[in-house]
Amino acid sequence: MSASREFNTVLTTEFPPERRNIPDMLRQQADRYGDRTLFACGGERWSYREACGLAARTGTLLMANGIARGDRVAILCGNRAEIMQLILGCGWIGAVSVPINAASRGFQLQHMLSNSGAKILAIEAELIDALDAIDLTALALERVWVIGAAGPVARSAAVPVEALPPVGVVEAPAAVSGPGELFTILYTSGTTGLSKGVCCPHAQYFWWAAYTGWQLGVRDGDVLHTPLPLFHTNALNTFFQALLHGATLVAETKFSVSGFWPALAQSGATVTYLLGAMVPMLLSRPPSPVEQSHKVRVALAPGVPGQYHAEFTERTGVVLLDGYGSTESNLIMASYVDDRKPGTMGRLVPGMQARIVDDNDNEVPDGEAGELILRADQPFAFATGYFAMPEKTVEAWRNLWLHTGDRVIRDPDGYYRFMDRMKDAIRRRGENISSFEVEQVLIRHPAVALAAVFPVSADMAEDEVMAAIVLKDDAQATHEELVRFCEGKMSYFAIPRFVEFVASLPRTENGKVQKFKLRDQGRGEATWDREAAGVVLKR
Predict the structure, then answer these.
(1) Phi then psi for 405, rounded to 5 degrees?
(2) Reported pTM
(3) Which of 22, 312, 331, 432 falls between 20 and 30 A from 506, CA-CA?
(4) Residue 387 vs residues 105, 191, 199, 233, 257: alpha-carbon distances, Å
(5) Pick from 491, 524, 501: which is nearest to 452 by CA?
(6) DSSP states along 275-291
(7) One digit per residue, pLDDT tens: the chain, 539 residues?
(8) How many other CB atoms sit within 10 Å of the CB of residue 519?
(9) Distant-in-sequence, close-in-space partners of 302: CB < 8 Å, separation ≥ 6
């Protein structure tokens, strides 16, 4: 079940298994590329040599503040150089970084900090109000570092809060880390429960770089340009693509429809990265010469509907390549410049195994939908489980296959097509949203008896969040009141756009809410639309 094309084995030869760890990858490439620019973000630029030294000096800072091998350091930050500095510093000394979605708030943020047991939280200055909605006394945190603080931080809190200390000149010795040791914990949406911390080993990011770089044809001297957040596996993977291929990564602070093409031209980008909804957003603007004022030849753009591919390439000159991977896995399916079938995820890459199965893990025939399950031939190419959630790990990796929860069809010609999520998750503008976590906030409103949250179709090829609400007897609430109640208690992108008050929720005989009925019913005349009502969310 492997692709017909041969996998490029150059990186696997240059980096034997024992060197597939963060310190060895940084040192080997620093020796090779020296003063060449590796990373640029928000006005900061690091050469390969500087990145290696900064990782070592940040390791010293972390150790001086009580961080030892295996300890976790949480990072709540948008795209800034400091997020990569701390991730690499942790990896250098064998500690574990925990990058958290910068939009996380309230119940969700509390859970992530509690579950990870982080000893330090580094938080961007403009996000510091997120601390107001969590109980610091219930966490293992020993200190909070504020990234980008203009001066001394004066804040009353249960733990010390101070500006992120500067690094000194002393470089910590690199930890001897095996390829399977824990490098980072990335929280992905809980589909029927709490968000799960995906345990990503060092070698997983070697394989992300090897496979994705091979798919995109990344080569020495390329400029990779991403507008995606560094706390997600997509952009974090892109850093290692640059590192291992002798390229430069330019990370934008955020995605801007109007600023996307000018930013590519300014950086000299040759490769870029998009998510499904971004392409129709870019195409929604009138054609302009600026769309071709760049050097980009290819974009990794998973989830773009097939009908947009030809128009995008014709207008911009950029070839869109689809693919499939998850935080738990790696690049599994890929399309290529000379082998594309828009609307599919591509073919299985060499070294990966995939099956489409029924509820009992029996393989189904081509053309029939089932759950996608995965295995890797390469050691530590996948995550090793969910942090401090052994029962969820066993459930997801049952029968020694990773169960993705994605409903997929394999066509007879070997292409894979994504159908939908089998689990209870919502995908909105590239973000996974746990309906469970949104429901937990809604039912805390004093007027709400029951809440069911589910996806409904949207204009940009992805989902919008809808909530069906049963109010308590004799209780009253407005739609806007419930939406405002969610502000600050969850990520802004998870707050429902559509709300409908209902008398009851459809249930099975054992009392489980039948969300498929709600999804099938969708929006109706009684559905309130936050955007149509002109309600603007605080971010």
Answers:
(1) 75, 10
(2) 0.89
(3) 432
(4) 20, 16, 6, 16, 36
(5) 501
(6) -TTHHHHHHTSPP-GGG
(7) 334 578 999 999 999 999 999 999 999 999 999 999 999 999 999 999 999 999 999 999 999 999 999 999 999 999 999 999 999 999 999 999 999 999 999 999 999 999 999 999 999 999 999 999 999 999 999 999 999 998 888 787 789 999 999 999 999 999 999 999 999 999 986 545 789 999 999 999 999 999 999 999 999 999 999 999 999 999 999 999 999 999 999 999 999 999 999 999 999 999 999 988 889 889 989 999 999 999 999 999 998 888 899 999 999 999 999 999 999 999 999 999 999 999 999 999 999 999 999 999 999 999 998 999 999 999 999 999 999 999 999 999 999 999 999 889 999 999 999 876 776 668 787 787 888 889 989 999 999 999 999 999 876 667 899 999 999 999 999 999 999 999 999 999 999 999 999 999 998 555 668 888 898 899 999 999 999 999 999 87
(8) 15
(9) 275, 276, 322, 323, 324, 325, 345
CA angle 144/235/71 to nearest 5° reads 35
How many other C-beta atoms lie within 10 A of the C-beta of residue 254?
Answer: 11
The CB density around residue 142, as the number of other CB atoms within 10 Å, is: 15
Amino acid at 359: D
Edge-to-edge strand order for the sheet containing 298-300?
44-47, 37-41, 248-251, 223-226, 271-273, 298-300, 319-321
CB atoms < 10 A from the CB of 222, how many?
23
Residue in 202, 160, 191, 172 with CA at minimum distance from that of residue 53: 172
State the Cα–Cα distance between residues 54 and 92, nearest whole angstrom: 10
| Tokens of residue 249, six digits | 């990564």
CA torsion sign for 129, 275, 203, 250 is negative
Closest CA to 33 of 222, 268, 167: 222
Q: How many CA atoms lie within 13 A of 506 on its CB side?
A: 9
Residue 93, token pair as written in the block: 């000394």
Collapsed DSSP state (helix, strand, coil) of residue 395? helix
Distances (CA, A) of 237 to 37, 139, 355: 17, 29, 25
| The one-letter amino acid at 487 | E
CA distance 393 to 358: 20
Q: In what order do the strands lie in the sheet with 402-410?
A: 352-357, 370-376, 402-410, 416-421
| Angle at which helices 435-442 and 106-116 cross, to 10° | 120
Domains, the chain: 22-177 (3.40.50.980), 202-232+252-423 (3.40.50.12780), 425-529 (3.30.300.30)
- What is the DSSP code (8-state) at residue 510? T
Largest CA distance in the chain: 71
Report helix, strand or coil for 202.
helix
Detail the DSSP E strand segments found in 108-181. Answer: 120-124, 143-147, 161-163
